[in-house]
Design goal:
388 residues, mainly alpha, 17 helices
């Protein structure tokens, strides 16, 4: 009754950080992320042992590294989720400048590790992929530019963000890394749509993407080979897609049993790009559906909480991060079941990878920070402000 008469209780600025964070954070999304990471460790125990044996390392070498990088990712996620939106924006804009510079210097100082695409910096004890960190930083920077364009007399933020997007997509395509380029393009397109872009412009952009894909098919043998393999009537059983397809078929509903799967001995990327094939073979459709459900919960709950947000920057940035998170998971699993061409993209928090885990923790930490409950975002607060 008190809130009905006097309105919602304002957040106390003197409230300790941890109690305030725990009261306002989306606990469902946080729990889902922790469960995904736990599933990644469980699957890594099976998928990474054959790779460790082939490389002459201890059986659980890659699992230990995944736990190390994953622990760092969880720490980053929790720390960033405790920050306010303005602090997140400031750190993200600074991080975007550094990641953009690192991406630009890849042709000079980067390496391809024999995979044909210069995407990494070799640090000796580990490798660093700048594009993984650039994605969430770009979303925040673009949301800031788009939100500033909505202000009276604001700068042409949409145009600036468009120029940045085109520049980054071209830089990624030159590596070539069409998977990350498509994610950047998709995240920016979702924010542009939510920000009120005309439908005709979006259709025109989609047409440009199709033309770009046709050009890449004719100009890049690597890209054309993947498209041809995807469109082929039959799958070569000796390819990664062939092994993954067979593993998913063999797994059935309940799987062949823990440790009984065979695909991990044939797939060189079983612990990264095709980790879902290991899950499907050993644990069956039940495990796959559980993983899909966890991703859906995070994305849907984030969208629902963002729908109540009145700050355009928070709404745009959160929407871009949630959409990019969900689409990356969808692309990874879609490749494994041959719904999409091979992209070389990890499954967030489940696949092995230092850069992808830490960058994923950073991105989800930002998303949790933007979806925290804030009384200033409620309708009642705005109505009271108008009545003053």
């Amino acid at each position: 009754m008190t809130e009905m008469v006097f309105g919602t209780v304002p957040v106390r600025d003197s409230e300790p950080v941890l109690p305030k964070w725990w009261r306002t954070v989306d606990k469902w999304s946080l729990s889902c992320i922790l469960l995904l990471f736990g599933m990644g460790i469980l699957l890594g125990l099976a998928a990474s042992v054959p790779l460790a044996e082939r490389n002459g390392l201890a059986n659980f070498h890659y699992v230990q590294r995944q736990m190390l990088f994953g622990g760092m990712a969880m720490a980053v996620m929790l720390f960033v989720s405790m920050l306010g939106p303005q602090m997140v924006r400031r750190l993200a804009v600074l991080g975007f400048l550094l990641a953009f510079l690192a991406l630009g210097l890849l042709p000079v100082f980067g390496t391809d590790f024999g995979k044909g695409a210069v995407r990494w910096y070799s640090l000796g004890f580990a490798s660093l992929q700048p594009s993984e960190f650039l994605k969430p930083m770009f979303v925040i920077a673009s949301a800031w530019l788009m939100a500033s364009a909505m202000e009276l007399g604001g700068p042409p933020g949409r145009l600036y963000s468009f120029v940045l997007m085109v520049t980054i997509v071209l830089m990624l395509a030159m590596q070539p890394d069409f998977g990350q380029a498509s994610l950047v393009l998709f995240g920016w397109g979702v924010m542009w749509f939510v920000g009120g872009a005309p439908m005709m412009l979006l259709l025109g952009l989609a047409g440009l993407v199709v033309l770009g894909g046709m050009f890449a098919y004719n100009a890049s043998e690597h890209f054309a080979r993947r498209i041809d393999g995807f469109l082929a009537a039959d799958v070569d059983p000796t390819t990664q897609l062939g092994y993954a397809t067979n593993a998913i078929r063999e797994g059935g509903f309940f799987g062949v049993g823990v440790g009984e799967g065979q695909v991990k001995w044939s797939l060189p990327d079983a612990h990264t790009d095709f980790i879902i094939a290991v899950a499907a073979e050993e644990y069956g459709l039940i495990m796959v559906l559980a993983i899909i459900a966890l991703y859906c919960i995070v994305v849907v709950r984030s969208f629902i909480r963002l729908m109540r947000e009145r700050d355009p920057f928070i709404r745009l940035a959160g929407t871009g991060l949630a959409a990019m998170f969900g689409v990356q998971a969808m692309i990874n699993m879609g490749v494994a079941v041959r719904l999409l061409p091979a992209k070389g993209m990890t499954l967030p928090f489940v696949s092995y990878g230092g850069s992808s885990l830490i960058a994923g923790g950073l991105a989800v930490g930002m998303l949790l920070a933007f979806t925290r409950s804030r009384t200033q975002g409620e309708v009642g607060e705005i109505l009271r402000a108008r009545g003053r």
